[in-house]
Amino acid sequence: MIQHYPKALSHEQCQIIIQSFERSPHKIRGKTGHGGVRKDIKSSTDIHVKGTQDDLLLNNLEPYYWKYCKQYSFLNRISNMISIDAGYNIQRYLDDEGYFVEHCEHSPNDPKRVLGWMYYLNDAVCGTTWIHQDYTSTVSEGSLYIWPAFWTHAHKGVTPNIGRKYIATGWCSYY
Description:
A hairpin with a 4-residue loop joins strand 9 and strand 10 (135-136). The chain is of the alpha+beta class and 175 residues long. The protein has helices at residues 11-23, 56-71, 73-78, and strands at residues 3-5, 28-29, 42-43, 45-50, 82-84, 87-93, 98-99, 113-120, 128-130, 135-136, 144-148, 155-157, 165-174. The chain has a single domain (3-174), classed as q2cbj1_9rhob like domain (Jelly Rolls, Sandwich). Strands 1, 2, 4, 5, 6, 8, 11 and 13 form an 8-stranded antiparallel β-sheet that branches. It has a 3-stranded antiparallel β-sheet with strand order 10-9-12, with no helix packed on it. A two-stranded antiparallel sheet has the order 3-7. It has 3 helices and 13 strands. The chain is globular. The longest helix is centred in the middle third of the chain and has 16 residues, at 56-71.
């Protein structure tokens, strides 16, 4: 199931993350799940963050992760074998950019991923479409989405993007 948690981050928290992104000297062209830059698949500017114990996003995510696990009895039973990955990405999409191709978070390169998560850091026009669920996210500053990482929840950006869209996205995996 795709779960939406509106206003999971405050306006102030989102602004701190966006400002940190914009100041960062570590921005790179967005890479696909296979590690390469392919503008026909994904066009964005990204930063990979190695979260720390006092990480704003990861600390905010934790109660929502547990809430999600408790909703599903099987996931709740195996939640002691899964953890929130410390690494995640912050991404900026400008006009005409986007993640154009359907994909999932679980892959041969990342076989331990169980869940994907994404925060929208600003209000934006274009969201994310989960193809098999016939569901398109509502893009609202501070909103959090959590979903299964597998092919059953393949998704892509609503493209081409209009305006600026900032997201933070990461995973929960078997450890």
